Amino acid sequence: MKLYITENTKRNDKTVAVDDTILVEGMPSTAGSKMLGEFKPLFDAEVISRLYNTGFSITGKSNVGEFGLDLLGETSNYGVCLNADGTLAGAAAAIVANGDAEYALSVDLNGTPRRAATLQNVCFIKPTYGTVSRHGVIPCACSAEQIGVMAKTSVKAAELLSIIAGHDKKDGTSLPQMKYDYTAADNATGIRIGIPTEYIEKAEQTVSEKVYRFADVMKADGATVEEFSLSELSFVQAAWQILLCAETCNNLSRYDGVKFGYRGNNSKDIGELYTSSRTEAFGLNAKFAILYGSYVLSKGHYESCYDKALRIRRVLRNKLDGIFSQFDLIIAPACSKLAYSPSDVVNSLEACYNESYFTALSNISGIPIVVCGGVQLMGDSFSENKLLTAATVYERTEVGK
Predict the structure, then answer these.
(1) How far is CA 327 from CA 198, 211, 331, 394, in A?
(2) Does 10 score more than 70 pLDDT?
(3) How many helices (H) and strands (E) in the chain?
């Protein structure tokens, strides 16, 4: 098992592990791909500069699946990360759970950090899209990828998030507010919580029990809980797959074996160089995203596939406006079960698509997420403080037993 791609400093209370998709000057930044196996950036990502400016240090780069497209890092060029019992482990979440670093920065592209945090029982916060700079993130699907924070508790994760969040002029998607205050209220009184029945029906019983346990804790602290239907989830899953692959296709087109990255050998001309470099260096998931992305962006399918997915995103946003007028937050599973063996992801493409049912809603809409107690809490844009309140109440109740 290789949790770190490279290690840098010894552990202290201000150390951060950083996903291998986030640039750190002079340290390998491979995005888990053979294509970038020799790449070392010449500058730091904006979030890294902010950490350095406030006295934090980087313990090293945590292993990720190729470009963050997989389930739990199983497609990494550096090998799969496993727990002691042989089940899959997301590297960043395992590093935090083991105490090798106090915090971890992870890029949520397709829900991988949320699954990992759920399985390792640590907290992960994915903030509202645009509140944390993406400058210095190796791009894949730019309209959704967002840096989030892992820690053992929501309070600690919020502390680090407060440091890295805020406007960055180098990022065209960065929102104008300069700083954000992430704090939790003392109790959950008055918070309205919804549980989509479709999520519960798709998850195993052990997962559903965690959702209902979280809901019981919230009700005991003054919140109201109600189940409701969100039948659009299957459309969300399909639309997100289209958008993810289309944007990935565009972003991965820069890797051609000429300017930087892996270069194929024995090519007779530029066409053969492109083909050999990409064939040898990209894994199956990346190749699928490129091919399917090319398909949905092609002249004969643009309107019926890509344009329709964009329309679904807009309809979904309107639907969420109605949901969040009724509820302050949603409690849902982050994945279908609480452990995955290597045999579960032999067909990683199918596994990723199936599990995206639970994670696509946040990726396609940009809403914030807090993973805590084995569930994910979703709220409207800029509702992080309500999400943190729920997470803090749950942690306080469970630790106090």
Answers:
(1) 17, 16, 10, 18
(2) no
(3) 12, 11
Does residue 309 contact residue 242 with C-beta atoms inside 8 Å?
A: yes
The pair of three-digit structure tokens given for residue 279, joined into one six-digit string: 């064939």
Q: Please tell me the distance from the alpha carbon of residue 133 to that of residue 137, in angstroms, as a whole number.
A: 9
The span from the CA of 135 to the CA of 212, in Å, is 38
pTM score, whole prediction: 0.95
The Cα 36–Cα 77 span in angstroms is 10
Given the structure tokens 């202290």, which residue do they identify?
12
Domain locations in the chain? 4-232+316-399
Mean pLDDT of 182-206: 96
Among residues 340, 396, 341, which one has the least CA distance to residue 373? 396
Distance CA 53, CA 210 (A): 39
Q: What is 176-192 written as a DSSP string?
A: S-S-------S--TT-E
- Which secondary-structure segment (H or E) carries 61? strand 57-62
The answer to whether 343 touches 124, Cβ cutoff 8 Å, is: no
Domain 4-232+316-399 belongs to what architecture?
Answer: Alpha-Beta Complex (3.90)
Q: Quick one: tokens of 93?
A: 């979440």
The three-class DSSP label of residue 329 is strand
Question: Which tokens belong to 270?
Answer: 């530029």
User: What are the Cα distances from residue 265, in Å, to 279, 287, 289, 290, 348?
Assistant: 11, 19, 24, 22, 28
Q: Which residues contact 82 (CB under 8 A, 6 or more apart)?
A: 1, 88, 89, 342
CB-based contacts of 188: which residues, under 8 Å, 6+ apart?
218, 221, 222, 223, 389, 390, 393
* Closest alpha carbon to 116 in 61, 161, 64: 64
* pLDDT tens string 257-270: 888 789 988 788 89
CA-based nearest residue to 339, from 374, 378, 376: 374
Q: Which residues contact 304 (CB under 8 A, 6 or more apart)?
A: none
Residue with tokens 């470009």: 67
What type of residue sits at position 52? Answer: Y
Closest CA to 285 of 70, 27, 39, 7: 70
**pLDDT (tens digit per residue) in 359-370:** 999 999 999 999
Residue 155, φ and ψ in degrees, nearest 5: -60, -45
Give CA–CA dist 324/200, Å, rounded. 19
d(CA 126, CA 70): 18
Taking residue 166's Cβ as centre, other Cβ atoms within 10 Å add up to 18
